[in-house]
From TrEMBL:
EC numbers for this chain: 2.4.1.-
UniProt topology in membrane: Single-pass type II membrane protein
Family statement drawn from the similarity comment of this UniProt entry: Belongs to the glycosyltransferase 10 family.
Pathway: Protein modification; protein glycosylation
Principal subcellular localization: Golgi
One Pfam family, short name: Glyco_transf_10
InterPro entries referenced in this protein's UniProt entry, alphabetically: Glyco_tran_10_C (IPR055270), Glyco_tran_10_N (IPR031481), Glyco_trans_10 (IPR001503), GT10-like_C_sf (IPR038577)
Domain Fucosyltransferase C-terminal: start-end pairs: 298-471
Top-rank lineage group of the source organism: Eukaryota
Lineage: Eukaryota, Metazoa, Ecdysozoa, Arthropoda, Chelicerata
Location relative to the cell: Golgi apparatus, Golgi stack membrane
Keyword check for Electron transport: no
Residue ranges annotated for the Fucosyltransferase N-terminal domain, each copy included: 170-277
Protein name as annotated: Fucosyltransferase
Amino acid sequence: MEKCPVLRRLPRRMVLCLHFTCAILGACALFTLYLESENAVVSTAPSDLTTTKFNYETDKLSSRFQEPYSNNGNIQVAKVVPPSWSWTSKDSIPSPTSANKLDSDTSAKNNSAIPSSHHHAVYYDKTKYIYLTSVSTTSTNRPPRVTYRTVKSTPQPKIETTCHSFSMQNSKLILLWTPFFGYWGYFPSENFQHCDCRNCEVTTDRSRLSESDAVIFHARDMSLSDLPSIRYPHQRWVFYCLESPPYSDFPGLQHMKNMFNWTMTYRTNSDIVTQYGTIKRNLPPRKVDMQSLLSSFTNKTKSVVWMSSHCPTDGGRESYVAELRKYIDVEVYGTCGSSICPPGETNKCLQEFSEKYKFFLAFENTICRDYITEKFFRTLKYNIIPVVFGGAVYDKFAPPTSYIDALSFKSPKHLAFFLSGVGKDFKLYSNYFRWRKDYSVRVNNRKECDLCTLLHRTDLKPSSYSNIRKWWVNESHCRTWKPKR
């Protein structure tokens, strides 16, 4: 023991280890008892405690949607059309400055609705009911968006419809009241053959107004003196427009109150969204021929090209291009420039542009909410980078890193310097084409399919736009670009 002092200290260390182990076990036992006591407390709580709190919060939330209209200028007032009701401008219902409280049964009905930022009000025997967008407008034909990936949405009940995919049983009749810029074939019946819901038919015969389920009015061909005298209770009158408000607004629009039930435009909050192009995910992903792209990049001899025959414009794009040309070479085709692209040969011209130029100015004539035309979507099909100019949030409509947004730069001068840098570096240039691996572009829309499907929905409540001009013009937030001084 004296030769090995370690052995003499060994019993003392064993005792310390034993004490330490006992302390840990005791702490674990106390923690287990604490958890069991907490569970016992929760189990003995009143069963209606959380329910009461939830109902209280729900009542608070629902009360926000029962406040007088004067507190919310975005609410669209609507009117149920009774049988044999004749539409005239004097029948419009102004937004009330106050609202009577709903009875308890009405409150229970409204509380079951999903919150939304856009509402429609409906009148039944002078009693006001508020229906949210999820019931009566756009969101009825589009699934809700999930904000966080970790959140799982509860399965939605299947929507009952009267649609028959392969027969014309219970078909819906769509009446074209106006042409589309003088052309009557803008809603071809054969397009329904490509829809899931295809039992709809189209007519231009106004004598069939009473049997029509939908009546379409093109904004640019409408006239206040040429409207149906009666809107039948089962009908939906549709406001159709693909032009931006500065080029589709007219004095008569402000008198068409409570006239339209649905909207069919490029705006994403329309009841039927008719965008100029769509993006589709590639499954499986496609291979991008970077070698061919490199060869195309090497053979390009010019920088920027713009093709336009509309000058001047409400958005001021011609002013932006004039400023841009001070810092980078821009060749202009069309009546706005000195070069010509023959009529009807746009695709051929774009192919030639993609062989010579590195950038194409896909500038819209207005800067308005969601307004993107085919000039952007068709450019994506060619080996040339589109430079966009418009009021839409392009990330919502276009593949990632597929374009350059001119209005995101401080000035045309800053954009010119950026284009010059990208045009000299193939690595930077090629990044704007890598999206083709995962996405494809379609220059079309499904307005016929979406309208036919919506007409067969059995869960929609009556509603209309109390002020279509406010929705279409004021809420588009159009503006004009002007150089900073």
